[in-house]
Write a structure and sequence with these properties.
single chain, 199 residues, 6-stranded mixed sheet, 3-stranded antiparallel sheet, 2 helices, rod-shaped
């Protein structure tokens, strides 16, 4: 329905008889309001905003499109961009400020100390590993990646131990005392290792 406009003709006076009759005027008012209240998607073909937003109705819903550059920083709510909007590759090194990654943001594999519960040392679970032996122990490694550097403090407590296959000892030898062992993963299954003893 097209909008119905009531003719008031204020220039010639309210009672000139040239305006829309009162009963008709109120009928039109009701029809205009009914049109608004009963409106559905078929009543509006499109809406275009000055900020570059357009809306095109479909059955039961309205599809909204925003032109390139249509949303400015001033129109974005605080904290409106979060992890839901991030995708792989959306943050690159160009957009990370220098020295922005602090120690408290590092994973546990770089910051934690863990007790070796059995004989397996999982490189992904901590940076420093400790163990007091209760018998002969043959250590194994898990979760190793090239470039990892890990520290082991092994108190043999009179017992002997062996390091995994692939270990290349470049300094020191295991003892039955306290051993400080540093391991560098240089290739798959290859662990360059130095061993020191407490003085």
């Amino acid at each position: 329905m097209a909008k119905k406009t009531i003719v008031t003709i204020p220039a010639v006076g309210a009672d000139s008889g040239n305006g829309t009759p009162l009963a008709t005027a109120f009928q039109w008012i009701n029809e205009n309001f009914t049109e608004l209240y009963d409106a559905d998607a078929s009543d509006v073909n499109s809406v275009t905003g000055s900020g570059g937003i357009t809306a095109t109705p479909t059955t039961g819903e309205v599809a909204v499109s925003i032109t390139d550059g249509g949303v400015t920083n001033a129109k974005m709510a605080a904290n409106s961009v979060d992890s839901d909007q991030y995708v792989d590759g959306s943050i690159d090194t160009v957009h990370l400020a220098n020295d922005i990654v602090t120690y408290d943001k590092l994973a546990v594999e770089f910051t934690e100390s863990a007790v070796i519960s059995a004989a397996e040392v999982n490189f992904g679970s901590a940076q420093v590993f400790t163990k007091t032996l209760t018998g002969t122990t043959d250590f194994t490694y898990a979760g190793t990646e090239i470039g990892m550097v890990k520290d082991l403090i092994i108190n043999a407590d009179g017992n002997t131990f062996t390091l995994p296959t692939g270990t290349k000892i470049i300094a020191g030898t295991p003892t039955t005392g306290i051993n400080f062992i540093q391991v560098v993963v240089t290739a798959t299954g290859e662990y360059w290792t130095s061993i020191s003893q407490e003085q």
